[in-house]
């Protein structure tokens, strides 16, 4: 169950990171609310997962999922350019996350 919560928390990290960008310095209400709610849920899920999973593994998986999804969303919406190297490096992050899960 901790792994499921950790993955969902990683997804929520991407949500709050994206909402933070869209909030334009907290000047837009809806993205600011999404940011706060997703941040609290994401941190709560990370804390829950860390009760059973090692700190380093939990944090690395959480950040890795959040970072990859945030960049993929930015590329999909056209706010960030797409390149072969970016895709390769994102795949390396995913490989690291999968490797950490496999070792646990």
Automatic annotation (TrEMBL):
<keyword id="KW-0472">Membrane</keyword>
<dbReference type="InterPro" id="IPR045324">
    <property type="entry name" value="Small_multidrug_res"/>
</dbReference>
<feature type="transmembrane region" description="Helical">
    <location>
        <begin position="82"/>
        <end position="103"/>
    </location>
</feature>
<keyword id="KW-1133">Transmembrane helix</keyword>
<keyword id="KW-1003">Cell membrane</keyword>
<keyword id="KW-0812">Transmembrane</keyword>
<protein>
    <submittedName>
        <fullName>SMR family transporter</fullName>
    </submittedName>
</protein>
<feature type="transmembrane region" description="Helical">
    <location>
        <begin position="33"/>
        <end position="50"/>
    </location>
</feature>
<dbReference type="InterPro" id="IPR000390">
    <property type="entry name" value="Small_drug/metabolite_transptr"/>
</dbReference>
<comment type="similarity">
    <text>Belongs to the drug/metabolite transporter (DMT) superfamily. Small multidrug resistance (SMR) (TC 2.A.7.1) family.</text>
</comment>
<feature type="transmembrane region" description="Helical">
    <location>
        <begin position="57"/>
        <end position="76"/>
    </location>
</feature>
<keyword id="KW-0813">Transport</keyword>
<dbReference type="InterPro" id="IPR037185">
    <property type="entry name" value="EmrE-like"/>
</dbReference>
<dbReference type="Pfam" id="PF00893">
    <property type="entry name" value="Multi_Drug_Res"/>
</dbReference>
């Amino acid at each position: 169950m901790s792994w499921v919560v950790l993955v969902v928390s990683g997804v929520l990290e991407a949500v709050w990171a994206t909402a933070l960008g869209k909030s334009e310095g907290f000047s837009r209400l809806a993205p600011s609310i999404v940011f706060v709610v997703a941040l609290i849920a994401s941190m709560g899920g990370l804390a829950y997962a860390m009760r059973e999973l090692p700190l380093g593994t939990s944090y690395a998986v959480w950040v890795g999922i959040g970072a990859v999804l945030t960049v993929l969303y930015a590329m999909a919406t056209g706010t960030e350019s797409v390149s072969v190297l970016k895709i390769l490096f994102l795949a390396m992050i995913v490989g690291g996350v999968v490797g950490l899960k496999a070792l646990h």
